[in-house]
Amino acid sequence: MNPLLEVNQLTGGYSIGRPVLHDVSFAIEPGEMVGLIGLNGAGKSTTMKHILGLLEPQTGQIRLGGKALDENPEQYRASMAYVPESPILYDALTVREHLIWSATAYGVEERTYEERLVHLAKLFHMTPHLDKAAQHLSKGMRQKTMLMSAFLVRPPLYVIDEPFLGLDPLGIRSLLTFMNRMKEEGASLLVSSHILSTIEDYCDRFVLLHHGKVLVAGTADELREKLAARGGQEARTTRLEDVFYAWVGADDEDGGELIWRD
Ligand SMILES: Nc1ncnc2c1ncn2[C@@H]1O[C@H](COP(=O)(O)OP(=O)(O)OP(=O)(O)O)[C@@H](O)[C@H]1O
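A: This is the predicted complex of the input protein with adenosine-5'-triphosphate.
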């Protein structure tokens, strides 16, 4: 199967000569959910901005459906929906108006829009809030509005940055349920999070970023094996989150450059 998204030896960031990302490579197959994991400042959002085309690679390439952004910008952009870390909403527009705007921008037919709207509003417990202006929404409701706008569209790829912050436990469960459903229907998802334990059971694979480099990538079992092979035998039984953060935390204390060796 051809990957839907290919990030190939990406070096990039905000200014030439001072890259934030160094030689980052990973791919996502159709129907796969991949967790992009790392500490604050590891480069997760920067990687996503490159995938969206908001930043240009200094070296390396990104392909979506086999094509780079400049080969077919319209198709590239229409093939993904993005949920940013901090909700970006128009204060004066209601939740419903945001959803209509999103459906229109992506060409979702009216009947399909209505069906999806009812389902998503129910799932995220937003039915009573659909006609509230964004400025009157709570933080979690703002986040849910962004998520619903993305999920209305049903693109091949979802890029979701820190989706769990601000959501209550019911919201987190609704989101995980829906992401799983999208995955089963063949969509691909790239989800960044610090909270590895929340997505450990949902992601097919993980890409662990540290100081802008891919430290290690693979399934949860593969990561455990690799970590255990480094001498941490407890990695076979401990939660992946504890193993990973103990490891990168120790690296930061040493001030050393941690490089994964297979
Ligand atoms: N707009 C920007 N201009 C210049 N540097 C930036 C900008 N945004 C982020 N950076 C830098 O890029 C590096 C990676 O930041 P990034 O936001 O990608 O990390 P992250 O893994 O998403 O972190 P967090 O978990 O805190 O959201 C950091 O050193 C940060 O200071």
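The pocket of adenosine-5'-triphosphate is lined by residues 14, 20, 38, 40-46, 85, 194 (CB under 6 Å). Strands lie at 5-12, 21-28, 33-37, 59-64, 80-83, 157-161, 188-193, 205-210, 213-218.
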